[in-house]
Specification:
The protein is globular, with a radius of gyration of 16 Å. The protein has 2 helices and 6 strands. Strand 5 and strand 6 form a beta hairpin. The strands form 2 sheets. It has a 4-stranded antiparallel sheet with strand order 3-2-1-4. The model has no long low-confidence stretch (mean pLDDT 88). It is α+β, with helices and mostly antiparallel strands.
């Protein structure tokens, strides 16, 4: 088990896709957040779950299917956003399904960090 971890929500970013991008704010949690993700991924793999091969990008989704005007500067947009900080005190594993065009998240497991 990992102890509670301080996290901060920072700059805007985007995952490019069609018909529009997913906009997010980055989440920084230092080594403890990356260690938690690595340990969770290893445990899930050991239990037969398939995990993603892409690089772990901790983030908070802001918008899906966003279409920004040509020349939009995410850095400039980020400058107007406050930095947010919090303490991660629990972890919830969610299943993500697309149902009738809507994203539905179902909690599968919850663990309080001690």
């Amino acid at each position: 088990t990992s102890p509670p971890s301080a996290v901060s929500v920072g700059a805007l970013g985007r995952f490019r896709s069609r018909p529009g991008d997913t906009l997010y704010r980055s989440v920084e949690g230092g080594d403890s957040l990356r260690r938690l993700q690595r340990d969770l991924s290893a445990e899930l793999t050991a239990r037969g779950f398939q995990t993603e091969d892409r690089v772990y990008t901790p983030h908070l989704t802001i918008a899906r299917r966003a279409v920004l005007a040509d020349g939009s500067d995410l850095r400039a947009l980020s400058d107007g956003l406050p930095e947010l900080t919090a303490t991660a005190r629990e972890i919830t594993l969610l299943r993500s399904d697309q149902i009738r065009g809507q994203r539905v998240y179902t909690p599968l497991f919850r663990k309080v960090l001690e």
